[in-house]
Amino acid sequence: MRKLFPLFLLLMICRLDSIAQYTLWSIGSANDTITSPTPCTLLMGGATEDDQAMTKFLQYADHGDIVVIRTSGADGYNTYLYSDLGVQVNSVQTILIPSIADANDSFVVQTVRNAEALWIAGGDQWTYVSNWKNTALNAAINHLINVRHVPVGGTSAGMAIMSEFYNSAQGGSAQSPVVLANPYDPTVTIGSSDFLHNSFLNDMITDTHFDYYNRQGRLMTFIARAWKDSNRKINAIACDEYTGVFIDTNYKATVFGGKPSADDNAYFLRVDCAGNNAIESCVSGTPLNWKQDSTVVKVYKIQSDSSGTQYFDLRNFGTNPTYTNNGGTWQDWWVNQGTFNFKPGTALLCTPLTLLDEEESTLRVTVSPNPFYSSVQLELNLSAAASLRWVVSDMAGRIVLISGGFKKYQKGYTGQTIEFNSPLRQGVYVLEIQNESGESIIHRLIKQ
Question: What is 10-344's CATH topology?
Answer without folding.
Answer: Rossmann fold (3.40.50)
